[in-house]
Amino acid sequence: MMDNLRAAANHVALKIILGLIVLSFVLTGVGNYLIGGSNDYAAKVNGQEISRGQLEEAVQSQRSRLQQQLGDQFAALAGSEGYMQQLRQQSLGNLIDVTLLEQYSKKLGVTVSDQQIKDAILATPQFQTNNQFDNAKYLQTIQGMGYTADNFAQLMKRQLISQQLAQAYGESDFVLPAETKAMSELLLQEREVHTATFDTAALAAKQQASDSEVQAFYDQHKNGFIAPEQLKVSYIEMDATAMLNKTPVNDADVSAYYDQHKNEFGQPERRRYSVIVTKDQASAQAIADQLKKGGDFAQLAKAKSIDSLSGKKGGDLGWMEPETTLPEFKNANLTSKGQTSDVIKSDSGFFILRLNDIMPEQVKPLAAVRSSIVDKLKQEKALDAYYALQQKVSDAASNDNESLASAEQVAGIKASHTDWFTEQNIPAAINFKPVVQALFDGSLIGHDGAPSSNSDVITVDGDRAFVLRVNEHKPAGIKPFAEVKAQVTELVKRQKAEDQARVDAQKLLTALQAGKGDDALKAAGLIFGDVQKVQRSARPSDFEQNVYALPQPTADKPSYGVSQDAKGNSVVIKLTAVNQGKLPEAEAAQFNQELQQTSSNNTFDALLGNLRQQAKIKFGNAAQNQ
């Protein structure tokens, strides 16, 4: 129910007028957006000119917005002359509406100050980063929409005036509690119905269709029997993964790789250091003197080092590999366990370093890593062979463009062949987007529909590639009568059955309304089913609409009607009860607000319609020229 009201409140005219407000702000002065003075204008509204330049800019801005929203789909729309002319007329209509509202606002004395514009932009989330106005983001946004700062400023001023007018008229509307109650009861109403269904499928099975009827139906509905484009294709598939088992790797290859990549199979030399860090050189030198006299390095580190993290551990820094060792440590040139450095100056202070231990380089033996080296070499060689094969096959397919015979020879495999298929049922073996695009873009088919040429190498999934050739081609076209006769026959029978069901349903409806329902139902072999409770939905079906179109029943007399269900069956409806809806108290305030918004929209729409009706609008050449 609330969806219905939100849809009603989403008024089209108001959206057109106010839709750009959030994106129509600027901090600095107002530019000269109105470009007048030329005889080649788009329109004159009560003597105020809308120039060609103004219209062209509005059209371009709308194009930019649509392109952002629709992406590649917009290219197809932009190719339609009718669509682009409609877009142009809509843009001009928007300019006329805004001009009318601007003129009316001047009569009322409604204005917008520069400060209002500044305040509005600073509060707009779309132009903020971390809750702060971001000028770069603002400029990027409006430029992406096809606007400059100057014309955006003028547009913003007009839109804010329009907003003030809409708010002013909206505040003048109110909805009485009785209206809210009546509307909620109507929208939440529930209807109890029983149905009797004429089964179209069962009726169709009893129908007859003559050859002349079937032929006539086909002739009238040929465009409903279109055969899509069909192809038969030959292809050679190259698969890098499949080449792994065909790629030999010998002992010499393995040994050479092992010798060249020993760093991949072990751990380099590691060293373990301890350090004492001080703020000044004098403190460091005093500690160095104590160490020379036999002082305990770990105890001095705990007591004197300003590096609390290592100091707690007696200065221990743990094991370090060459790439993680500081240059100062390397330059200390400590070579034996227990050796201590002199005072060393660094960016973080002064320190004394001790080499605690050395763990020599360790390399796994070849036997332990042979399997992984073989796998790696196979992959590398398979990829090299794969790319080399691609090149050979590509050259052969290009040089012998009349068949795939030469490509088969260099590939060492026979081409595979498909049966007929369409773009909707691609064989799984070649169902890859790049392959499908190449097959159906027309480049592999000659002007007369005959095979044209072999494809280039088409890579898919990174490790697989194809070379293709179209062997046979059937263009899209109307299927011959003989091919679809059985299908058309069933359609004719179905149509006859639907017609009969509608006639029978109307007869039954007439009998029910005349009080002869029992006999009519018995004659039709039908009974009314159990009660169904029907409520309004956001997008009502034909059945729902017909249920709610029926007059309310009386205590002793139901209402009857006819509809169709989703299967195309004719349905006789018996409406026995109407239960008024009740709005939950928690939703009452929101419901009343949405009703008031709908009323405000209608008032504003009436204002805009009245302004259009009273205005003198003259269209110029630019209104049509593109």
UniProtKB/TrEMBL annotation:
PpiC domain mapped to chain residues: 268-357
Membrane topology: Single-pass type II membrane protein
Record PROSITE patterns: PPIC_PPIASE_1 (PS01096), PPIC_PPIASE_2 (PS50198)
Pfam families associated with the record: Rotamase_2 (PF13145), SurA_N_3 (PF13624)
Domain of life the protein comes from: Bacteria
Subcellular localization(s) per the UniProt record: Cell inner membrane
This protein's GO CC annotations: plasma membrane
Swiss-Prot/TrEMBL keywords: Cell inner membrane, Cell membrane, Chaperone, Isomerase, Membrane, Rotamase, Transmembrane, Transmembrane helix
SUPFAM superfamilies referenced in this protein's UniProt entry, alphabetically: FKBP-like, Triger factor/SurA peptide-binding domain-like
Gene Ontology terms for molecular function: peptidyl-prolyl cis-trans isomerase activity
Entry's transmembrane regions: 12-35
Database matches in NCBIfam families: PRK10788.1
Family, as annotated: Belongs to the PpiD chaperone family.
UniProt protein name: Periplasmic chaperone PpiD
Source species: Rouxiella aceris
Gene: ppiD
